[in-house]
Amino acid sequence: MSQSDLHTWFLSELFDQIPMKIAVINRDLNIVRANRHFTEVFGDWSGRRCYDVYKDRASRCEHCNAERAFTEGRSCVSREYMTDKDGATHYYLVHMTPLRTDDGSIPFIVEIAIDVSQIVNVQQEYELLFDSVPNYITILDRDLRVVQANRAFREVFGNSVGGAAGDFCYRKYKQQDSPCGNCPALKAFETGKVHTATMKGLDKNKEAVHYVVTASPLTNERGEVVNVMEIATDITLVRTLEAQLEQAFKLQETAIASSFDGMIIAGPHGGILLFNKSAEDITGYASGDIRVFDDLRAIFPENFLWAIWDEQGSCVLPDATIQSKSGEPVPVRLSGTILKNGNGVFGSAIYIHDLRKIKQLESEKLVAERLAAVGQTVAGLAHGIKNILTGLEGGLFVMNSGLRKADVDMIHKGLSMLESNIERITHFVKEFLSFARGREPSVRLADPAAPAHEIVELYRDAAKKEGVRLDASVPESLPPAPIDPDGIHTCLANLVSNAIDACLMSDNTDHTVTFKVWERDGVICYEVSDNGIGMDYEVKKKLFTSFFSTKGSHEGTGLGLLVTRKIIQEHGGRITFDSAEGQGATFRIELDRARLPAPPQQQE
């Protein structure tokens, strides 16, 4: 090819062969010529302005770089988003060069656009990845200055003046004025290898930050280390949890060592992992004496160990006896269980509560209660008899005075006082003997509502005379049950009578006693409520003790509620109460049909 042919080729062919989008634009921003690559991407351009062709705009751009090139008469470079003929947007690097004529005027500019969309996307992805990584990432130069830092680093360690970049890493990480003694970045610069270290620094608020940092060398094309990238993983939470775990372990260790209960822990294969001091004190064995689970058979009941491992996985014996090393039987409370996690069984635990002191105290308490009961009974008898004797002495004095004065009325008055007190002492002795001997309940199938109806009939008029309203809610009948009707009658009479007396002792003007009977879920309930004086703590505490009465020495023996509770207990039931001073009281009797005594024919 001759020089002339080469020149012709350059003029006719090169324009279309250049692998870039090239367009020639006049001062009216019309495209007057474009090469083949431009046409393939942006389509027909003839007679159209540049902003219409690749911006799809109806008017020129606000910051038109073409006008700038015409005005300033020099090349300029910009980055532009352009839309191709299919509506897809691409990112271009655009070079604009003015074409001058011989007289220096600029009739056209040449616009060369290079598609850098892929490069920009990669760069954006890199920047996004760099900033999104939850680790602290920094790029350091040889002076250990931060060339670049990601968002996580900036948020935790803050920015220096002008940003994090430019400050020394040791100032940012540790707020100190010299490099660390074991600096992994310096080692990476020196050796060209990756180095790792565990460090403790300070965040922007001067709070401690623990992290593991890995320093990796970045080399140029000649293999020279020009930068180091440090990636730090925050382990502050791990360190905090480790410290808390260590503290918890020490607390647990102390608690186990100082526990009054014996604790024995066995591993999954039966080896004894823990035999604490209390276990040694209770059993008499040293921890070294018991090495495997089978050794425990010399101490604990066989059925207890078998229940833990072979049957149900746990066992509680509230009152058991173990064999100490010396052969002494030791009363204990035992609790045992297998230990499980998500991976299955990893051991077993036995807890021993020494009951020797409790048993000793119980024995001493029983003796004391018996002595107290005897003393209380004697004191109650003496007090009751003393009161009656005082009444007898008074009656005798009145009668003797009448005899001396020949006063018939005084003689009759004294005699009446003697008869009254003799009747009281007879009633008192009979009540006491009845309580002391007890009475055999006469159990038969009867309607539980019948005694309640009798009580309502018996007390309604009597209560009305005293100014007390008796409200009753008693079903006509209930299914027959094995009860002692006379005993239940006695109990209900005591409760209703007490309720009426409590109302009379109060300052309320509207005295009301409410009597209810019902059955629910196989439990027969009798409930007596009043709006009387109620009871304080001291009265409630003494309520079921013998000879205690709130009615005064001339009205009550203090045995009524004791007898009531005894009869209810003979029926397998219970009596409960609720009261507050000045707010009345509620007594409830509950008889579970499943626990009622069997009638005589069934007993036989």
Structure description:
It contains 18 helices and 22 strands. It is α+β, with helices and mostly antiparallel strands. The protein folds into 5 domains: 3-120, PAS domain (Beta-Lactamase); 133-239, Beta-Lactamase (2-Layer Sandwich), CATH 3.30.450.20; 259-354, PAS domain (Beta-Lactamase); 359-437, Orthogonal Bundle (Helix Hairpins), CATH 1.10.287; 444-601, Heat Shock Protein 90 (2-Layer Sandwich), CATH 3.30.565.
Outline of this structure?
With 604 residues, this protein is α+β, with helices and mostly antiparallel strands. The protein has 18 helices and 22 strands.
Write the layout of secondary structure elements.
Elements: H1 3-17, E1 21-26, E2 31-34, H2 36-42, H3 50-54, H4 65-72, E3 76-83, E4 89-99, E5 108-115, H5 117-132, E6 136-140, E7 146-149, H6 151-157, H7 169-174, H8 184-191, E8 195-202, E9 208-219, E10 225-234, H9 236-258, E11 262-266, E12 272-275, H10 277-283, H11 302-311, E13 314-323, E14 329-341, E15 344-354, H12 356-405, H13 408-437, E16 444-446, H14 450-465, E17 468-473, E18 481-483, H15 485-504, E19 511-520, E20 523-530, H16 537-542, H17 560-570, E21 574-579, E22 585-592, H18 600-603
Parallel strand pairs: 17-19
Antiparallel strand pairs: 1-2, 1-5, 3-4, 4-5, 6-7, 6-10, 8-9, 9-10, 11-12, 11-15, 13-14, 14-15, 16-18, 19-20, 20-22, 21-22
Helix pairs in contact: 12-13, 14-15, 15-17
Task: Give me some keywords for this one.
604 residues; five-stranded antiparallel sheet; alpha+beta; 18 helices; Beta-Lactamase; 5 domains
